[in-house]
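Input record, target 12 of the design panel.
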């Protein structure tokens, strides 16, 4: 009983201390992904893995995730969320799939920046900065006063994309 109470207290302390939860970071990543994919249905999460959560400043944290998504039966226009119980996955043969990585920056419990990279999904042109390297790889950035290191990483990604590293291999 004591260990249970200590666990509850630890979770409450971490929640109040500004440390982002992996669930929140994953949710924000998939919401962003669903905004920019070309398919008309929502994508839901099939697998997930927290790669890293680390502190970058007094009130700032970064979360790195890897996850796979699959198209659901729910339309983006339905008003439902991707994790709604009624949003079942489409059949294996017809569903779009993607392997994604995301990097989320938090400052004072607020999302400052979301980077989402996916293989297997197409994006639509939007007002957000969008780089489409091929049919099967995308990167999307949402910017809000980015630190110098993030801008440097963005330039590195642009260089990689222009070199054609993400191009589909011929079989």
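The sequence produced for target 12 reads:
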């Amino acid at each position: 009983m004591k260990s249970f109470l200590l666990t509850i207290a630890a979770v409450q302390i971490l929640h109040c201390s500004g440390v982002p939860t992996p669930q929140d970071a994953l949710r924000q990543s998939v919401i962003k992904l669903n905004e920019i994919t070309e398919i008309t249905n929502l994508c839901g999460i099939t697998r997930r893995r927290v790669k890293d959560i680390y502190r970058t400043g007094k009130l700032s944290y970064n979360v790195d995730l890897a996850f796979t998504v699959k198209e659901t039966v729910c339309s983006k226009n339905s008003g439902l969320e991707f994790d709604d119980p009624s949003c079942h996955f489409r059949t294996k043969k017809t569903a779009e799939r993607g392997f994604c990585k995301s990097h989320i920056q938090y400052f004072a419990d607020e999302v400052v920046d979301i980077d989402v990279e996916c293989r297997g999904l197409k994006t639509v042109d939007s007002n957000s900065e969008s780089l489409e390297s091929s049919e099967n790889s995308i990167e999307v950035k949402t910017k809000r006063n980015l630190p110098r290191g993030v801008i440097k990483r963005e330039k590195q990604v642009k260089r990689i994309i222009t070199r054609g590293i993400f191009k589909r291999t011929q079989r």
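The two ends are 58 Å apart (CA to CA).
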